[in-house]
Amino acid sequence: MVKFGNDWDEILKGEFDKDYYISLRQFLKYEYKNYTIYPSMYDIFNAFKFTPYNKVKAVLIGQDPYHGPGQAHGMCFSVQHGVPVPPSLKNIYKELHDDVGFEIPNHGYLLSWAEQGVLLLNTVLTVRAGAANSHKGKGWETFTDTVISRLNERNEPIVFMLWGANARSKSAMITNPVHRILTAPHPSPLSAHNGFFGCRHFSATNEFLMSGGAEPIDWTIR
Fold it and tell me: In what helix (H) or strand (E) does residue 99 lie, and over which residues does it extend?
């Protein structure tokens, strides 16, 4: 049984008993037994553990976890201390610097964002080592669709930052007019120059939050 230790337990009650998730769990058991899978099975749901449902102010949606050794730890785009900053996160930092004067840190651990209410969510929560999108279409999309639908039900405004085609596909679940959707190409080196650079999503997020009386996100990485 999956336990988050916060209000997600009630919000997602019953989800892990559904047929699609039971099939996904069987698939994951086989994958973790026979291949190297990221993140560790103990870290899959870290985004939910660090950012309770009622604390969510912004949702950053990526594709699937990093597929290199030691990188993924259950929060999209984040790596733990001591792990080199991946190229996509370097591009995120560059856009932050150009957008809000962000001081680029020497690490990629995004816990300070998660603790302020930025849900660091991928559309797919696991991946086989060295094989991007290898767990696509196995059931995670149904789970993350449910997560976004539950967030859409909230009456407190949330900013959804959808980066890349996989993330943009989630916009169909975001129908509540109190929320704000921001879309851009993925920040990977392959696509960042096609419109991610210059999107100014970080200042736009804070302007939207403040317009509704909410505290802005301090994007500083601590």
Answer: helix 87-100
In angstroms, the CA 128 to CA 185 distance is 24
- Which residues in 181-207 are b (16+ Cβ under 10 Å) and which e? ebbbbbbbeebbeeebbebbbbeebbe
Omega cis (within 30) before 84: no
Beta bridge partners of 162: 61, 183
pLDDT tens digit string along 33-78? 999 999 999 999 999 999 999 999 999 998 899 999 999 999 999 9
What tokens does 15 get?
A: 């989800």
Backbone angles phi, psi at 7, to 5 degrees: -70, -10
- Would residue 64 show up in a list of annotated catalytic residues for this protein? yes
Instruction: For residue 187, give the nearest of 114, 107, 91 by alpha carbon.
Output: 91
Catalytic residue among 7, 17, 19, 64: 64
Q: What is the DSSP letter of 131?
A: B
Q: 194 by DSSP, 3-state: which?
A: helix
pLDDT digits (tens, 9 = 90+) for 138-196: 999 999 999 999 999 999 999 999 999 888 999 999 999 999 999 999 999 999 999 99
pTM: 0.96
